[in-house]
Design a protein that fits this description.
Strand order of the largest sheet: 3-2-1-4-5-7-6-8
Structural class: alpha+beta
CATH class of the largest domain: Alpha Beta
Order of helices and strands: HEEEHHEHEHEEEH
Radius of gyration: 25 Å
Number of domains: 2
Length: 198
C-alpha cells in the first residue's frame, strides 16, 4: 500500500512538474508574441524642399498611431501650396521595410516629393519630363526618395524585391519612386540594362 502511494505521489509530482514547465513555456511564448505585437515602427525623414526633419513612431504592433500619421501627412504636404492629404499608411511600412532591407533600419530618408496637388502636378508636367498626368502623388499614395550614403540603384533593387507596389528609378535625378499601387516598375531615361530591374 505504501509503495502504491509513493508511486502515485511520484506520478503526481511528475505531472505537476510537466504542467509547470508547459505553463512557463506558454508564458514565454505569450510574452514574445506581445513584444512583437507592441514592436515600434519608426521613420526618420528629411524634406529636401522645406529642410524639415521628423523622427516619429507611427505604428505599434499592428496599430497605426493616428497622431503620428497626422504629423507625417503634414510633413509630406505639397510644399508649393501647403495643402495636406492623408497618406496611405502602408506606404510608411514600405519606407520602414526599405531601410531595413538596405541594412539601415531606421535610417534617415530624404524626401524628394510627397503629396502633390493637381495644380502642382500639372506645373511639374509642363516643365519636367517623367511626370505622370494621373500620378499617385496626387492621391497621397507615392513618395520619391533617396537615402544618404545608399546608392539609389541599390535602393531601387531593394524596393523591387519588396514587391509591394510601383517602383520608379530616376538615375539622373538620383531618386526612386515608391507607391502603393499595383506592382510594376519603370526606369526613366535609363540604359537598356536597367529597364527590367537589372
Amino acid at each position: 500500500m505504501l509503495a502504491v502511494r509513493k508511486n502515485n505521489l511520484g506520478l503526481w509530482l511528475a505531472g505537476a512538474m510537466l504542467f509547470l514547465i508547459a505553463a512557463s513555456g506558454t508564458r514565454g511564448q505569450r510574452s514574445g508574441a506581445s513584444s512583437t505585437a507592441s514592436a515600434e515602427h519608426a521613420l526618420q525623414l528629411y524634406n529636401t524642399h522645406t529642410n524639415e526633419k521628423i523622427d516619429v513612431v507611427y505604428r505599434r504592433g499592428d496599430q497605426y498611431i493616428q497622431s503620428a500619421l497626422a504629423k507625417l501627412d503634414y510633413f509630406l504636404r505639397d510644399h508649393n501650396t501647403n495643402e495636406v492629404r492623408h497618406f496611405d499608411p502602408h506606404l510608411y511600412d514600405i519606407l520602414s521595410d526599405l531601410t531595413a532591407s538596405v541594412g539601415r533600419p531606421g535610417g534617415e530618408i530624404d524626401i524628394v516629393c510627397g503629396y502633390r496637388t493637381t495644380s502642382t502636378n500639372a506645373a511639374l508636367r509642363a516643365h519636367t519630363n517623367g511626370v505622370a498626368k494621373n500620378s499617385l502623388h496626387i492621391q497621397a499614395e507615392a513618395i520619391d526618395l533617396r537615402m544618404p550614403g545608399v546608392n539609389t540603384l541599390k535602393l531601387r533593387k531593394a524596393a523591387l524585391a519588396l514587391a509591394r507596389g510601383g517602383v520608379g528609378y530616376y538615375p539622373h535625378s538620383d531618386f526612386i519612386h515608391v507607391d502603393t499601387g499595383r506592382v510594376r516598375q519603370w526606369c526613366f531615361d535609363c540604359p537598356a540594362s536597367l529597364i527590367n530591374g537589372d
